[in-house]
């Protein structure tokens, strides 16, 4: 089988390896598609661990099932979430499934950018979902990233009637727009720098899409006038630029919540003024990955058409061109979601 081995964004090599033989507590999937995540492009995060096989947004067809697995069968069209919680540890008992030690240690092997991968019985039991017939393999690759958005919205406690500021309208930002609409949010302002993304945000249902100016106070006053309030009740920062994070901190309402959704480099930072947070009861939080409840809701939203999966995916590539897909994702040049498709 072909396996893409990552060394850096410009150096991804195709290796030929034997198809893995699943153990009694494993199952084998023939990969049909795998999305390219922004995390698959972060060299500062990946190259210290290279060489490695990436890909965690994988979908495919069950090819072989170990004797200890009974809830899936050969021929099932599945999306397999790469991380799964143990359900019994301290964090899981509190509902913080993504903080579970087992969650972060579990993976599919060797990864989604491979013609085949194996997963465990625990994957089969807790977070392997059957794709409905109306959901294509390409659309199924969006289950994991959409689940991350659902996780963030739920953690922020969004309610119908909340005012929301969203910063960034890449793939994740556009799905945020549609999810927030699903949640009943009608007071929404979106910030974006790139003209083509501004047009996409309008297309996906955002009425108020603004380019951020250089004066933070002026931006706050615009938001206050739009919402007739002291700021946005919820602020989602879906861009990894430090300027976006500074802007987001400035737009939040008294008693509001700022959600850090994107990952800057470890050495990057912003100033925080504790007295302002204290006197205005501002909540600052973040979100990491998604759990087995989020993925189920994500698949439902894709299947129902509440999230436009087919319009989110802009480019497809064969596995041999994974480096091109990574570089296209990094470039922001009129591309949204890049997906690797397999013709095996």
From TrEMBL:
Give the GO molecular function terms. Answer: oxidoreductase activity; zinc ion binding
What name does UniProt use for this protein? L-iditol 2-dehydrogenase
Q: Does the keyword Membrane apply?
A: no
Cite the entry's keywords alphabetically.
Metal-binding, Oxidoreductase, Zinc
User: One Pfam family this chain carries?
Assistant: ADH_N
Return the InterPro entries for the record.
Answer: ADH-like_C, ADH-like_N, ADH_Zn_CS, GroES-like_sf, NAD(P)-bd_dom_sf, Zn_alcohol_dh
Every copy of the Alcohol dehydrogenase-like N-terminal domain together lies at: 24-123
Q: Which residues form the Alcohol dehydrogenase-like C-terminal domain?
A: 172-303
Q: Which family does it belong to?
A: Belongs to the zinc-containing alcohol dehydrogenase family.
Q: Name the coenzymes or cofactors required.
A: Zn(2+)
Keyword set includes Metal-binding = yes
């Amino acid at each position: 089988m072909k396996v893409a081995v990552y060394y850096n964004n410009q150096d991804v090599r195709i290796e030929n390896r034997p198809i893995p033989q699943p153990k009694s507590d494993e199952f084998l999937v023939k990969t049909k598609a795998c999305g390219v995540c922004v995390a698959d492009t972060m060299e500062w995060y990946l190259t210290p661990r290279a060489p490695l096989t990436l890909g965690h947004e994988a979908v495919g067809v069950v090819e072989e099932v170990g004797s200890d697995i009974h809830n899936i069968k050969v021929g099932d069209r599945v999306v397999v979430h790469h991380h799964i919680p143990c359900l019994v540890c301290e964090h899981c008992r509190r509902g913080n499934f993504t903080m579970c030690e087992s969650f972060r240690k579990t993976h599919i092997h060797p990864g989604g950018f491979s013609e085949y991968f194996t997963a465990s019985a625990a994957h089969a039991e807790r977070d392997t979902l059957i794709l409905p017939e109306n959901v294509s393999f390409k659309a199924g690759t969006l289950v994991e990233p959409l689940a991350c958005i659902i996780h963030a919205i739920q953690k922020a406690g969004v309610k119908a009637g909340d005012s929301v500021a969203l910063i960034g309208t890449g793939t994740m930002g556009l799905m945020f727009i549609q999810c927030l609409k699903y949640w009943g949010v009608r007071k929404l302002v979106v910030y974006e720098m790139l003209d083509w993304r501004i047009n996409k945000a309008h297309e996906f249902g955002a009425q108020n899409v603004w380019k951020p100016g250089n004066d933070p106070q002026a931006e706050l006053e615009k938001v206050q006038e739009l919402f007739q309030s002291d700021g946005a009740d919820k602020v989602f920062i879906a861009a990894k630029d430090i300027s976006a994070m500074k802007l987001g901190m400035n737009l939040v309402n008294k008693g509001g919540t700022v959600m850090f959704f994107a990952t800057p480099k470890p050495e990057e930072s912003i100033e925080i003024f504790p007295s302002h947070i204290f006197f205005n009861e501002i909540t600052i939080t973040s979100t990491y990955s998604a759990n087995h409840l989020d993925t189920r809701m994500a698949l439902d939203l894709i299947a129902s058409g509440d999230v436009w999966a087919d319009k989110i995916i802009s480019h497809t590539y064969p596995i041999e061109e994974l480096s091109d897909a990574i570089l296209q994702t990094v470039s922001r040049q009129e591309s949204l979601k890049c997906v690797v498709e397999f013709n095996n």
